[in-house]
Amino acid sequence: MTDFDTLMMRRALDLARLGTGHARPNPLVGCVVTHEGRIIGEGWHRQHGGPHAEVNALAAVADPRLLAASRVYVTLEPCAHFGKTPPCAELLIAKAVPEVVVCNLDPNPLVAGRGIEKMREAGIRVETGLLEAEGRWLNRRFFTCQEKLRPYIVLKWAETADGYLAGPYFQPVQISGPLAHLATHQWRTEEQAILVGTRTALHDNPRLSARDWPGPDPIRIVIDKNLSLPPTHHLFDGKQPTLVYTYRSRPTQGNLGYITLSEADDLFPQLFSNLHQRNVQSVLVEGGPTVLSSLLRDGLWDELRIIRSPRTLGGGILAPKHGLSGLHEQFSLGEDHVFVYLKP
Question: Where does the UniProt annotation place the signal sequence (predicted)?
């Protein structure tokens, strides 16, 4: 592979990111078509149910005659099955594209190498694995869902400099500043669902929307084992799809769904298995210390984001203790500092 190949795949990955929040539950995919060292077409998967990246990139080529001498870069193996759209592997074959470079193979059992095989059988030269790690990171939600049969789980909390995340008796306190507030709403658009426990829902009465950042609102998820939350709380306002996981039984009401779990089995494996069945690929957990500590203890998480404020409380509800040493990323948002950890 040449430096030009790497540059083109990086461009395809940048294009793929443009589908964040809109392509799900499909993966993020970008595609670049080149001819004699220049880009002649590019595209990405813009919307779930809409044309795939390869379709958009090939359609953007002004002179289709050039495709017979082109080189195509795509971030994920072209599909080989009929879904909401026809197979992209067959489209590349039909357009007589001679060379295709693929970043990641698709772990979806409906694809899983069939796209590569189909193109090679048709005489297309296919190369794979270019910027593979970068591609897996970009589509970490998709790969986790396919390989671990559960959503990608992001834990998030804001804590004071002295380690508290709420006042005494769970009294809500504004800990982080305005930039961190905006970042939180941006993160909500990037994850398919957002989860809180009973205490957080009761004391904070959160909306769990992305109202302060452009993008789709997440599916709201609340754990309410005994259906004790007041029906007047924001979570039950019907403005967003909302799932209530409980040990009791209650019929679904509009976009408010009730899912009954077994008291005999662990709660979170049941919950995440149910979300996987619903094709929910990622969850942002903004729960209180009980929910967060439980997920940390059981290893049911993939990414941890801690917003640390310079302010102090001197008392209240302590933030969870994570004991992690491998810091993945650190950055500032105004006076606040964000620490990002990945599961070892």
Answer: none
Q: What region, left, alpha or beta, does residue 236 occupy, with left being phi > 0 and alpha being psi -120 to 50 degrees?
A: alpha
Q: Phi then psi for 16, rounded to 5 degrees? A: -60, -40
Can 54 be counted among the known catalytic residues?
yes
DSSP β-ladder status, 303-308 and 336-342: antiparallel
Peptide bond into 25 cis (omega under 30): yes
Helix, strand, coil percentages, rounded to 5, for the chain: 30, 25, 45
Assigned CATH for 149-342: 3.40.430.10
Distance CA 198, CA 177 (A): 25
pLDDT tens, position by position, 196-226: 999 999 999 999 999 999 999 999 999 999 9
Q: 163 phi and psi, to 5 degrees?
A: 90, 25
- What is the C-alpha to C-alpha distance for residues 130 and 11, in angstroms, rounded to an integer? 12
Dump pLDDT digits (tens) for 235-276: 999 999 999 999 999 999 999 999 999 999 999 999 999 999
Tokens in use for 204?
């904070």
Element (H, E) at 290: helix 289-298
Is residue 59 within a helix (H) or strand (E), and if so which, with residue range? helix 53-59
If you count them, how many residues does the chain have? Answer: 344
Helix (H) and strand (E) counts in the chain: 10, 16
Question: In this structure, are residues 57 and 66 in contact, taking their beta carbons and an 8 Å threshold?
Answer: no
Q: Which residue in 36, 42, 54, 99 is the catalytic one?
A: 54
Give, in degrees to the nearest 5, the angle at Cα 260 between 259 and 266: 110
Identify the CATH assignment for 3-144 out of 3.30.720.120, 3.30.110.30, 1.10.1660.10, 3.40.140.10: 3.40.140.10
CA angle 257, 294, 279 (to 5 degrees): 35
The pLDDT confidence band at residue 86, using thresholds 50, 70 and 90, is confident
Report the phi/psi class of residue 98: left, alpha or beta, with left for phi > 0 and alpha for psi in -120 to 50. alpha
d(CA 67, CA 239): 47
For the chain, the structural domain boundaries read 3-144, 149-342
